[in-house]
Design brief:
The chain has helices at residues 7-20, 26-30, and strands spanning 36-42, 45-50, 63-71, 77-86, 89-97, 111-116. The protein has one domain (7-118). The chain is of the alpha+beta class and 128 residues long.
Length: 128
Amino acid sequence: MSDLPTVRDVKLVLRHLLERAEFPGAAQFLGQVDFIEGVSGKIDFLDLHLSPSAPMAPGSSNPLPTVGYVEDAAHESLGEILIWVTGGKIQRLEYAEYFHRYAAWPTVAQLYMVGSIQSARPWADTPQ
């Protein structure tokens, strides 16, 4: 697996995704990007470390309903990026690289589409 991206690289990709997202609360999550202070984990599941003063956003503990699709220089699909939230704050980025090579964290130039997704777990928002 590749080295972890810099905080700057993560912010650029996350800002790109959230500026194009169309769901309630997207602007509030976009407002959290500047509060990212660090990243850890592995390139396929980046844990984001936000400042304690980061504003809360509405939302449950699920992936946000937006996805960024990643391609290589030959315009071949490489994977997708999902944004995971816990307690109203961005917690993790999942880079689901289709071929499991994880050569490098995607750049904004590699994001060819930002789309909406529906939760694969419709029961996830249902109180237990």
